[in-house]
C-alpha cells in the first residue's frame, strides 16, 4: 500500500510538471501523430497539433490547440511559425511526424511520387524545423519520426524507393542538425514501428495500433538518450544507421 501511494504521488508530480511543457506535433490529426498527441495529453502536456485543415476531427481536449500547416508550402510554414511565436512563445519539444508514402509497396520509382514524397517528408520537415528553431527552448528536444526503412545498414528490400530515400535523408538531417545544436537542443530519430495507419495497403496487418505507437514513442521521449540517437519504438533499442 505504501509503494502504491508513493507511485501515485510521483505520477501526480510528473503530471503537474508536464503541464508546464508545450509540445508541437506535426501531422497530429491522424495516424501516428494522433496517437502521439493523445498520449502526451494523457501525460499532462500542453499539445499543439498541426494539420493541413487546421483541425483535429472528432477529438477535443482542454490542453489541445491546433494550427493549420502544410509542410510542403513555404507560405504555410511561415504562417505557422509566426502563429507559434505570437501565441505560445517558446515550446519545449518539436515532434516532426507529418509524412506521406505514395510509393509504399511500389516496385519501381516514379517521378511524381518521388517529388511529392520529398516535398513533404524531407523539404517540409527540414524547413519547418529551421523555422521553429528560434521558438524552441534551450535544452529542448526535436524528435524526427522516420522509419527503419531509412536505415542503409538494414535495407534488404527493393520497393518503396522514394519513401526509403526520404527517410534516409531525414536520418542524415538528424545527424547534421544534432551536430549543429549539440550544446543546446537534443535531436533524435525515431522508428515508430509498423502501425495500423492506412498509409500503405497492407497496414491493416500491422501489429501496433496508433495508441500503442504513441505510448512506445513516449517511452523514448523519457529516455536519457544522447543527441543523434536512432531508436526503434517497437523494440526499444538502437537502430544502425
Major beta sheet summary: 8 strands, mixed
Strand order of the largest sheet: 3-2-1-4-5-6-7-8
Number of helices: 6
Low-confidence stretches: none
As a percent range, the share of helical residues equals 40-55%
Strand content: 15-25%
Structural class: alpha/beta
Spatial shape:
globular
Compute the CA-based radius of gyration. 17 Å
Total number of beta strands: 8
**Termini Cα gap:** 45 Å
- Calculate the mean pLDDT score and round it: 93
What series of H and E elements makes up the topology? HEHEEHEHEHEHEE
Report on the structure:
This protein has 6 helices and 8 strands; from the N terminus they run H-E-H-E-E-H-E-H-E-H-E-H-E-E. With 241 residues, the chain is α/β, with parallel strands linked by helices. Strand 5, helix 5 and strand 6 form a beta-alpha-beta unit. Helix 4 runs parallel beside helix 5.
Descriptive tags:
8-stranded mixed sheet, 241 residues, alpha/beta
Care to give the gist of this entry?
With 241 residues, this protein is of the alpha/beta class. The chain has helices at residues 2-18, 31-42, 74-88, 111-132, 161-180, 210-221, and strands at residues 22-25, 46-51, 64-68, 91-96, 136-145, 186-191, 230-232, 237-238.
Amino acid at each position: 500500500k505504501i509503494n502504491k501511494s508513493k507511485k501515485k504521488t510521483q505520477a501526480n508530480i510528473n503530471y503537474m510538471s508536464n503541464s508546464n511543457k508545450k509540445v508541437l506535433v506535426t501531422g497530429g490529426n491522424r495516424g501516428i501523430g494522433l496517437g502521439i498527441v493523445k498520449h502526451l495529453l494523457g501525460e499532462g502536456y500542453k499539445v499543439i497539433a498541426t494539420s493541413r485543415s487546421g483541425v483535429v476531427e472528432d477529438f477535443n481536449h482542454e490542453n489541445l490547440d491546433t494550427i493549420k500547416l502544410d509542410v510542403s508550402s513555404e507560405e504555410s510554414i511561415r504562417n505557422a511559425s509566426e502563429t507559434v511565436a505570437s501565441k505560445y512563445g517558446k515550446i519545449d519539444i518539436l515532434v516532426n511526424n507529418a509524412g506521406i508514402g505514395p510509393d509504399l509497396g511500389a516496385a519501381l520509382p516514379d517521378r511524381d511520387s518521388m517529388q511529392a514524397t520529398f516535398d513533404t517528408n524531407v523539404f517540409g520537415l527540414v524547413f519547418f524545423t529551421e523555422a521553429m528553431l528560434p521558438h524552441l527552448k534551450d535544452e529542448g528536444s526535436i524528435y524526427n519520426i522516420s522509419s527503419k526503412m531509412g536505415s542503409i545498414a538494414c535495407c534488404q528490400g527493393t520497393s518503396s524507393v522514394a519513401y526509403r530515400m526520404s527517410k534516409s535523408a531525414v536520418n542524415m538531417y538528424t545527424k547534421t542538425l544534432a551536430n549543429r545544436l549539440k550544446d543546446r537542443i537534443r535531436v533524435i530519430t525515431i522508428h515508430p514501428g509498423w502501425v495500423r495507419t492506412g498509409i500503405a495497403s497492407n497496414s491493416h496487418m500491422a501489429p501496433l495500433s496508433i495508441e500503442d505507437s504513441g505510448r512506445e514513442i513516449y517511452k523514448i521521449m523519457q529516455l536519457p538518450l544522447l543527441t543523434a540517437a536512432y531508436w526503434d519504438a517497437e523494440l526499444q533499442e538502437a537502430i544502425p544507421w
